[in-house]
């Protein structure tokens, strides 16, 4: 038995570096055996084989340890010709377990070869180990070796196709579920392009286009106007522009054909996905590939495009719902400001401060979006408080203060009638934004983290803004006095962690205040 400390590779008429960089041009076959003569014979017999237009690229190892390193360095090995007895009597069998259970590689075909079949009986090995063929070296003739390799390569190719289809379907499910979270047409469009190009590894140049319908200047020619919503690669510079004079004539013809046919189609190495929403808007997804698109990829693309169409319907519905929701909130905030001449852009500043503090505190995008929108109506309950009390320039009596306190519950009752997330969060903020961190606030004496974090944020930024600006009952405080107050009330009125974040970023908040006070 001849050991070898160097990993060997052999590719007919190609050097190692060139072979390794072109795995898609070869079938990688790994020979694992501690006998040099076995390697030489195997290569001599198989070197001229071609299957499906691809030659054989040989990888070599002389022990279990060397084989493991080769497997780690080469992800696409089709067949392993594996000796059982090497540095140990069961080295080959242990390697099989490592491949299947540790590397979790179920695709590679393993042909077990042994010169001592008595030590590893065939029936026991086949039952206990996940191998694909078992041969005694003395019985493996040239023709048998050839047949075993071709059969294994065919099996490996079929498994690769099945696995790619399975992975593609899983990716489509995951990718399009992410697209359902998109909050704008542009975000959705760009996400669709990136997901598609990513899982198919296609040409990086792609387009997502809105068809705006016939325009007056093009009506005579019967042509459509194509507004580019999103793009990748060489088309990226065209986003938000009309494609009519920017794209090549052949691409325009493809887009026009999709409109005429009202369906998605492949042509050569190009694909155009056609989708029409329930509102009648038409969108097209275009991309091309540098190589022929396989039947499996075509099926995956078609399925992905259909899921994109459904996701796009969801995006449109979300946008319409958000617009209606924001219109309601905007109307309520307008009512609030008109009800008090003392507001002076207070709502706008509190919303911006809340968004900034929310970001600094680590809230996610959705939470910040809700916080900024909901903050606009945190004091909506004031519309039920008499103006004589709200606008009173002197200190309130105890009864008047009790009346003012009712605005928290009143705001909750107004907003809680709406079922969507933003309005539900708005109602909680309206109810809790006067609760104090030490439990001395109103209306429910909540304490610490019993108070929703968005209400804790509004409590801080609402007070911060009120102190910085003049009201009928008070003059504007200086910045240093406001900072002193925020520090003093940390842990009492305010969440100390949130106050700490505000004070660490105080220059940013004060700069924002000056900007918003001028605009």
Distance between the termini: 86 Å
Number of domains: 3
The percent range for helix content is 40-55%
- The second-level CATH architecture of the largest domain is Orthogonal Bundle
Mean pLDDT: 78
What overall form do the CA principal axes indicate? elongated
Number of strands: 12
User: Which structural class matches the secondary elements?
Assistant: alpha/beta
Fold-level CATH name of the largest domain: Hypothetical protein af1432
CATH domain class name of the largest domain: Mainly Alpha
Helical stretch tally: 19
The description of the largest β-sheet is: 7 strands, mixed
Q: How much is the radius of gyration in Å?
A: 35 Å
Beta-strand percent range:
5-15%
* Poorly predicted segments: 1-22, 213-222
CATH homologous superfamily designation of the largest domain: Hypothetical protein af1432
